[in-house]
Specification:
By secondary structure, the chain is an alpha/beta fold. The chain is built from twelve helices and seven strands.
């Protein structure tokens, strides 16, 4: 990633990829390269698509979509393909890049940095952050998105969102904190059942030793975050970066002045919000009412 004032791509806002822009071309870049390599190894092995599909458990149409770069193959398939086709690790070496293709184009750099972060601090105003979402809540969010996503794309995006949550089990443990507007945890996106599961998820995440969740009450008469949501990232090499989404664009800020401004805002937000213990008590209260 370059180090000017920021990296700008198309986006829209809800903190981590719930964009309102048209779908990026899923057949571009790394998916096309992977698809060509996959086909080359299949042909070299003397297998027709239906034969290869039978060996891996995938349909002919799915194999064709992978080879043509129209779908994102899951890691399990890549491992199987590499072994079945005797690719010598060539396909497996592309697994990480292929996985990033699951994300909207504008979020891929941020996803990479997020996965490498030693500290991550998030302020959310519209939705529960993707790192904290249940599968049902994430699916509801993507289903509501306009223009409509295809069922296939929804499932790919849900899988990608859940894959990001491996950050919680990573060692050494990163430091994670979240400030969430009270309106977010009282808005029953997806319905009562979905929201109940989401509140339970927040309680579980908030009990992790390396995670702090704070709720910003609606009743506060002072508020440092009126400009909208953002994420602060500190990398293993001590770089401090801010990720901000607004309508139709996202930006990674690397200049120290901008990042410092957002760090100051986040510090004030944490001071103005309920404490982590008070926040979990509020979530428990809301859960009892759901």
């Amino acid at each position: 990633m370059s180090e000017p004032t920021g990296l700008v791509d198309e986006a829209s806002g809800s903190g981590d990829g719930d964009e309102r822009r048209p779908e990026p071309d899923a057949g571009s870049g790394v998916l096309r390269v992977f698809g060509r390599q996959l086909k080359r190894f299949r042909v070299r092995a003397g297998l027709e698509r239906h034969e290869f599909g039978a060996l891996t458990g995938y349909s002919v149409s799915t194999i064709a979509a992978y080879e043509q770069g129209r779908r994102v193959p899951p890691p399990r398939f890549i491992d199987q393909a590499d072994e079945v086709l005797d690719a010598g690790g060539v396909l497996q070496e592309m697994k990480e890049e292929v996985a990033r293709a699951q994300y909207p184009a504008f979020f891929r750099d941020a996803a990479r940095l997020e996965g490498e972060a030693v500290e991550l601090h998030v302020y959310d105003t519209h939705l529960i952050n993707g790192l904290l979402q249940t599968e049902e809540y994430a699916r509801a969010v993507f289903t509501m998105r306009r223009p409509l996503l295809s069922d296939e794309t929804i499932e790919e995006r849900v899988a990608a969102r859940l894959a990001r949550q491996k950050i919680f089990s990573r060692l050494p443990m990163p430091t994670l904190s979240f400030v969430i507007e009270q309106s977010v945890v009282t808005r029953p996106l997806g319905g009562t059942y979905v929201m109940r599961g989401q509140l339970e998820q927040l309680l579980l995440c908030g009990q992790r030793r390396n995670v702090e969740i704070q709720i910003m009450p609606n009743a506060r008469d002072e508020h440092a975050g009126l400009a909208g949501p953002f994420t602060l990232i500190e990398t293993q090499d001590a770089r401090r970066i801010a990720y901000v989404e607004v309508y139709k664009q996202s930006r990674l800020y690397t200049d120290r002045g901008t990042v410092r401004e957002l760090e100051e805002q986040y510090g004030l937000l944490r001071a103005q919000a309920l404490t982590p213990r008070e926040s979990l008590a509020l979530i428990e209260e809301l859960l009892g009412e759901t």
